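Long-time lurker. I teach an intro course on protein structure, and each term I like to show students one example going from raw sequence to a predicted 3D structure in token notation. This year I'd like something fresh instead of my usual example. Would anyone be willing to generate the tokens for the chain below so I can use it in lecture? Attribution to the forum is fine with me.
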Amino acid sequence: MPEVNVLVVDRDKVVRNLLKEELGRSGYKVWATSELQEALKLVREVPFGIILTDLKLPGINGVELVKKFKEAHTDTSVIVIVPYYSLKLAVEVMAKGGVFDYVTKPFNIEEVKLVLRRVVDRQYLLRQAGQKELYQELSIMDGLTGVYNRRYLDEVLRRELGRARRYNQILSVIMVDLDDFKKYNDTQGHVAGDELLKKLSLLLVEAVRSADVIFRYGGEEFFVLLPQTLKQGAVDVAKRLLNLARQNLPVTLSLGLAAFPEDAQEMEDLIKRADSALYQAKSQGKDRICLWGEQGSV
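-- Reply from a regular --
Happy to contribute to a lecture. Here you go:
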């Protein structure tokens, strides 16, 4: 992993020391402070890839805090730290934009590391020009499209479901498939088919939030994980994807949706139900969105 500068901003000295020690062991270069003004000074002087910040610093609300950090360095990914009983605050700040994800106190340090790994990998993806060889070296990335691979889906979805159960949250998933891809591949050639898969992956990245996660599930199928998203919110994302494909791709998309805990409580069941909804969209004529457990399309 390339060296990544991380700034930890938290009032609690124990939290600062723990994060500095554990993240340092994982290869990050870490600064830590409890003071907002010192943090802003550091952000102007050091190119931080990640800021891990307490949302409840004295004299400033969470939204303004994030805004100040993003104004100082727009490319920095901000992760907010909240007590487990203040999850609503984290969700509100994320809804305003500018925040990649959140972690809770008390920490599960492995969860914190996984969130930071997602940030680093996404930054690679967004800087993919000239970095192709890096993606091929990352075992969690799909070598062709640059999005996450099927193997990493199990790790991330298991973690997000565990967090959703722990904090009584919801999440939605979308299974995405290129319609008539085999026909396109056969008539246009495999090089054109590969280019189409790459173009779809870029559309997916552009269409979702930074906290959402995209995987190549296999062949021409992709999987989109939408943490803290109601099914209706997932429908809105799916509609945006459907329209983007109609405008930018030579083929259409079919999409299947399912949600936790409404449709399934276990990881395998959630994937299967999204896949079943996708099959329903295919069987009803393609170029549409279907929801698990509902007749017709949306």
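Some talking points for your students: Residues 109-126 form the longest helix (18 residues). The two ends are 42 Å apart (CA to CA).
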